[in-house]
UniProtKB/TrEMBL annotation, chain A:
This is V-type proton ATPase subunit F. V-ATPase is a heteromultimeric enzyme made up of two complexes: the ATP-hydrolytic V1 complex and the proton translocation V0 complex. The V1 complex consists of three catalytic AB heterodimers that form a heterohexamer, three peripheral stalks each consisting of EG heterodimers, one central rotor including subunits D and F, and the regulatory subunits C and H. The proton translocation complex V0 consists of the proton transport subunit a, a ring of proteolipid subunits c9c'', rotary subunit d, subunits e and f, and the accessory subunits VhaAC45 and ATP6AP2. The lineage of its organism: Eukaryota, Metazoa, Ecdysozoa, Arthropoda, Hexapoda. Belongs to the V-ATPase F subunit family. GO terms for cellular component: proton-transporting V-type ATPase, V1 domain. InterPro entries: ATPase_V1-cplx_f_g_su, ATPase_V1-cplx_fsu_euk, ATPase_V1_fsu_sf. It comes from the Eukaryota. The keyword Ion transport applies. The gene is LOC114247397. Subunit of the V1 complex of vacuolar(H+)-ATPase (V-ATPase), a multisubunit enzyme composed of a peripheral complex (V1) that hydrolyzes ATP and a membrane integral complex (V0) that translocates protons. V-ATPase is responsible for acidifying and maintaining the pH of intracellular compartments and in some cell types, is targeted to the plasma membrane, where it is responsible for acidifying the extracellular environment. Keywords: Hydrogen ion transport, Ion transport, Transport. Coiled coil: none annotated.
From TrEMBL, chain B:
InterPro entries: Vma22/CCDC115. GO terms for biological process: vacuolar proton-transporting V-type ATPase complex assembly. It comes from Bombyx mandarina (Wild silk moth). This is Vacuolar ATPase assembly protein VMA22. The gene is LOC114243635. One of its GO terms (molecular function) is unfolded protein binding.
Length: 124, 153
């Protein structure tokens, strides 16, 4: 299975609002595999946080996914789960949506990277 | 004692690299943002032409739809000793996503498709920067540990 995925290439999955999902799926990243599992999840205002969390964990576990795209405002809802994910693959990328511009201070990776520049640590 | 100076110099270089990567990542995210905004405008124009529900999630495939593969995927490659991701065009068992929304779709939907395809290259670029950031963070931590050990001894 892993060998097959390596030869074939791996997926880019998306968890986002309607426009983000429609747009990226239009771009050609959507897939329904043989087990009828999609690589995308459309989140609206009625979607429970537990469902988003569960979907994110499911995507992380799948070995055929290399990149998980998630709208930053949705990532905020499951921040603890995203912060706990430290493995390089799948790479979790927080992207802005049309209603929520990008905020670097919220990005999980940037916060981790900036945290390293503690003034006390930089003094020789 | 003589090992401290080179280690500090190396730490300086790695930290500067980290700042450069942070800047690159933010630039890339802003590129994604402007592309997503442009794409969304074209999706909205398509909705205006075709009707509100004709370009919506109701048209997307569901778990009961027949299986198909993604036409754009990514591949892991080794370049300059680093693992990188690269976009890859898959041609097996793919479908035409535009057909979910009809056979004769407006030009705006074609435009939106092109814009989101361009965004995917920024997405992969951003993921590569993220991978480098994580690698760099490991190097900084390792160097700091090393400096702690040799400054104590």
């Amino acid at each position: 299975m892993a060998l097959h995925a390596a030869v074939k290439g791996k997926l880019i999955s998306v968890i986002g609002d309607e426009d983000t999902c429609v747009g990226f799926l239009l771009g050609g990243i959507g897939e329904i595999n043989k087990n009828r599992h999609p690589n995308f999840m459309v989140v609206d205002k009625n979607t429970p946080v537990s469902e988003i969390e569960e979907c994110f964990k499911r995507f992380v576990k799948r070995d055929d996914i290399d990149i998980i795209l998630i709208n930053q405002n949705i990532a905020e809802l499951i921040r603890h789960v995203i912060d706990a994910h430290s493995a390089p693959v799948p790479s979790v990328l927080e992207i802005p949506s049309k209603d929520h511009p990008y905020d670097a201070s919220k990005d999980s990776i940037l916060r981790r990277a900036k945290g390293m520049f503690n003034p006390d640590d930089l003094v020789r | 004692m003589s090992n401290i100076e080179p280690a500090h110099d190396l730490l300086d270089k790695v930290i500067l690299r980290q700042l450069d990567l942070l800047e690159q990542k933010i630039k890339c995210e802003l590129n994604i943002e402007s592309n997503v905004n442009n794409g969304s405008i074209h999706l909205a124009k398509s909705r205006y032409i075709m009707g509100q529900s004709s370009v919506s999630t109701t048209k997307l495939p569901t778990e009961s739809s027949p299986d198909f593969s993604a036409s754009i995927m990514c591949k892991t490659i080794e370049e300059d000793g680093m693992t990188k991701l690269k976009l890859y065009q898959n041609k097996e068992n793919t479908i035409v996503p535009l057909h979910w929304f009809g056979v004769l779709v407006p030009q705006n939907l074609h435009m939106a498709q092109k814009i989101f395809q361009t965004t995917l290259s920024y997405v992969v670029e951003c993921s590569n920067i993220q991978l480098q950031l994580k690698e760099n963070m490991k190097n900084i931590n390792a160097l700091r540990k090393y400096l702690n050990i040799i400054s104590k001894s």
